[in-house]
Amino acid sequence: FRIMLAYVRLSFFLWLYTSICCVQTTSPAQFMDDISGYRSACKKIGWEPKQDCTAYNVIAFHANLKSNLNNLSQNTTIKFENVQLNKGNGYDPATGMFTAPEDGVYSFTWSFLTNKRGTVYIAAVVDNVDHVHTCINNQQSTYINTSGHLIYELKRGNKVWIRTWYLPATFIHGGYYTYFSGSKINSI
Hints:
The protein is of the alpha+beta class. The chain folds into two domains: 2-44, no CATH class; 54-186, Sandwich (Jelly Rolls). The chain is built from two helices and twelve strands; from the N terminus they run ααββββββββββββ. A five-stranded antiparallel beta sheet has the order 3-1-12-6-9, with no helix packed on it. Strands 4-5-10-7-8 form a five-stranded antiparallel beta sheet, with no helix packed on it. The chain is elongated and about 65 Å long. Its main location: secreted. It is found in: Secreted.
């Protein structure tokens, strides 16, 4: 029995070692052949996806502020001009607004940094209606960061943006500290 157990352990180790090492040496053509084989095997046992992954368009953006913002009045749209990613071209840095290119469920996140005694009230807005509020009010740290998240079902053409609300924003730190991101997470 000990010999059999040792053989099983050795076999598993060799299989694991081969799997890891061969991943780096597999050619693209061989990889595609392997994937086709896996798909074929899945179909034979009735285990196949309802829709091919390539049927989905990626819609995602990420943008941050180029510079600090001072003394913004209430209801000022924040324009995140430094666009890192804009798949689907839904985000417009000139307006600070994301326009849904197609129907779906979308996820949005934002974060902002302010300085000592900073006051910033931020709203996530969908078609001119506030849906999430985040704030920092007269905080006492040297700098402090806060963030928010919104998941929302959008129709094509709906707009989402970030704006100040309630009180004027005293200071919002620019650069990578303050950003707005979003992506489509599901079709409807």
